[in-house]
Write a structure and sequence with these properties.
Length: 267
């Protein structure tokens, strides 16, 4: 059972969808009352969500000193600029994303505020500029969209990269922290969840290889075989996943694309 350490407030943005679950989690972290605070992932550019963030800051009497981004996808970062202007604080994240940064954070960088320190881990795969934040001494990692609180994560080409994604998941397994606070959904245990994610990816890869071995040779044919009885609402997500898996298999030499048709080359 997760018992949140004192000083962490979760605010879920009003942007529920298939990929964002109940909405994006914005985390307010800092010593209470009247301590220094950071905002992790301001969420979408929503005045309603911003009002809730302001209300929470006021209610604990905190002083926000910076905004941290796990990555620059709009559901996490579109509200960064407006929040940064309103609070007069810098936006910090990994370089190369869609949001202008006031401070660039590299892999291994430390961000310190009164009572909390955050170690930055560059964890690409879902997004090139993706960071996780290890809350040192608290047993927690904030994983943005690397790991969600429920279900599995959709990867989309061209930014989604399965090999990088698996490497980033494996990096999480090297940590001693026990809990994940995800960008969407509730807290989940780190080791069990990350192992499930890796197993799920391997199972999916095996199914795709099987489909190719049986003669499926286009993305649509592979999808039809792998995702039988697929809910049409999930079609786009499934297609992205198959494409990202095929790109990974081609990169490792197990699959080739000839005349617009994929074929499996075992061994
Ligand atoms: Zn997201």
């Amino acid at each position: 059972m997760f018992c949140p350490p004192h000083g962490i407030i979760t605010i879920t943005a009003p942007n529920p969808s298939l990929t964002t679950l109940e909405g994006t989690n914005t985390y307010l972290i800092g010593r209470r009352p009247r301590g220094e605070m950071v905002v992790i992932d301001p969420g979408p550019d929503s005045p309603i969500h911003r009002e809730v963030i302001f209300h929470e800051i006021r209610s604990v009497g905190g002083r926000v000193s910076l905004i941290l981004l796990t990555h620059s996808h709009p559901d996490h970062a579109a509200g960064a600029l407006a929040l940064s202007k309103a609070l007069q604080v810098p936006v910090c994240g990994f370089p190369g994303g869609a949001v202008p940064l006031d401070r660039e954070l590299s892999h291994g960088a430390m961000v310190e505020i009164e009572g909390f320190s955050f170690r930055c881990l560059h964890t690409p795969g879902h997004a090139r500029d993706h960071l996780c934040f290890v809350l040192s001494g608290k047993g927690i990692v904030l994983t943005g969209d690397l790991v969600l609180g429920r279900g599995s994560l959709a990867l989309f080409p061209p930014e989604g990269d399965l090999d990088l994604y698996r490497t980033s998941l494996s990096l999480l397994l090297t940590l001693d922290e026990e809990w994940i606070l995800p960008g969407h959904g509730p807290p989940v245990p780190l080791k069990r969840t990350v192992e499930e994610y890796l197993r799920h990816r391997q199972d999916r890869e095996n199914q795709i290889k099987e489909a190719l071995a049986l003669g499926c040779s286009t993305v649509d044919e592979v999808m039809e075989w792998v995702y039988r009885d697929l809910d049409p609402a999930l079609y786009g997500l499934a297609r992205g996943t198959v494409e990202v898996h095929l790109a990974s298999l081609m990169g490792r030499g197990g699959v080739v694309l000839e005349d617009g048709r994929y074929c499996h080359h075992p061994g």
